[in-house]
Design goal:
Number of strands: 0
Radius of gyration: 17 Å
Number of helices: 5
Order of helices and strands: HHHHH
Structural class: mainly alpha
């Protein structure tokens, strides 16, 4: 039963990464499988590491993290979404080439993994096998990220600018949903 719950937890934690990874396929519709692997690995490492950190940090940080995590992750997602839409508009004016910046990947990985800290803390109160949980969370996040990059690649190829604006709007929506959901 514990393994089933860990898998459900991993899928749940990976959903925001799925949504965020779509943007990488949109931004780079010509991305190859082996180029997508490092992006998915970064998302997976952050998700697993933040979960493990949450588990290990225990209740000491739980009040602080749970109180501000929604605001922090939502702010990062909204800012990245606005930045993405701004870049589309700026690129339309200057015809500049698109590129995926490493800092954006790290910030997006942090934003989509902050909730894993709180989940890790609560997981530690009930279960003991956080290493298995971290590995499964990382693996599921990797798979979801690779799949969503492929989805984004499809939309990026067929709908280019519209898909980029939609991707930015998706990040903003994800941030707003984080803010208003209980």
């Amino acid at each position: 039963m514990e393994l089933f719950l860990i898998i459900i937890l991993a899928v749940t934690l990976s959903l925001d990464t799925f949504a965020a990874s779509i943007n990488y396929g949109i931004l780079r519709p010509s991305i190859k499988f082996k180029q997508a692997i490092p992006i998915a690995i970064v998302f997976a490492i952050f998700q697993a590491a933040f979960f493990g950190f949450g588990y290990l940090s225990g209740s000491l940080l739980s009040t602080l993290i749970s109180e501000y995590s929604i605001y922090l992750s939502s702010s990062i997602l909204i800012m990245l979404g606005i930045r993405m839409i701004y870049k589309v508009l700026k690129e339309a004016i200057s015809n500049k080439k698109k590129e995926v910046k490493k800092l954006s990947l790290v910030l997006l990985s942090i934003a989509t993994s902050i909730d894993a800290v709180s989940v890790g803390i609560s997981f530690g109160l009930v279960y003991n096998n956080y290493i298995l949980a971290s590995v499964i969370i990382g693996a599921v996040t990797f798979i979801f990220s690779m799949a969503s990059i492929r989805v984004g690649k499809y939309f990026g190829t067929t709908m280019e600018k519209t898909a980029e604006v939609a991707g930015g709007a998706l990040l903003i929506l994800l941030g707003v949903i984080n803010l208003i959901s209980p």
